């Protein structure tokens, strides 16, 4: 099956294609009928009010939602031409890495935070070289090269988050998912992450969930605005309201709800 891009990037194929996706936990519906394409080597920002299902959506991409009891999804998620449910979840999560909201370094040395994952995944190359390269990719090498065997927990919050990104990059994923990666960081650390993401998009496809409208407008190529609708029974369900290039979403959105959300927070 070969999915091609729509009018946003007519000459590109999508790396992830989401078709008619609905998500349920127990008897509650979280997302309804999501259709979305994620383009290679672009940064896609996912924005919208709390509770609209942004985090649930990106956790579907690498099947982390399946770790929760009573999860059920309807519809399809294709990575290239393969439905993700047909892929080995361990291998899928190597290809689709995840950086979480709060930095979560292992309680080990800076070096071992990266080397451990390489060893577990049977890396056959020079681990020292890969550790250095990964740290250089996130502009952390010069800050830690003389203290590689110091506990990662001694790093600042911003350094810890960059280390977690380096840990993800070491496994050479195709896609990096980021769930509010700067929400716990100060403005200076956030600016460093923004600069890093801009550099990384030349080699990786990045999807960022964020409540920070300034960040979304600065770093992303495309923005998907999710909203919430309330059913007659009072159930709140997330849906994709609008998806377009970022400059359109922030300056010329087609939906009034998008305009209202962005203008209140931008």
From TrEMBL:
Keyword Nucleus, does the record have it? Answer: no
Q: Which PANTHER family match?
A: ABC TRANSPORTER I FAMILY MEMBER 17
Any one Gene Ontology MF annotation carried by this entry is: ATP binding
* Native species: Laspinema palackyanum D2a
The segment(s) forming the ABC transporter domain are 16-253
Q: What is this protein called?
A: Phosphate ABC transporter ATP-binding protein PstB
Enumerate the UniProt keywords alphabetically. ATP-binding, Nucleotide-binding, Transport
**Which Pfam families does the record match to this protein?**
ABC_tran
The opening ranks of the lineage are: Bacteria, Bacillati, Cyanobacteriota, Cyanophyceae, Oscillatoriophycideae
This protein's record includes keyword Nucleotide-binding: yes
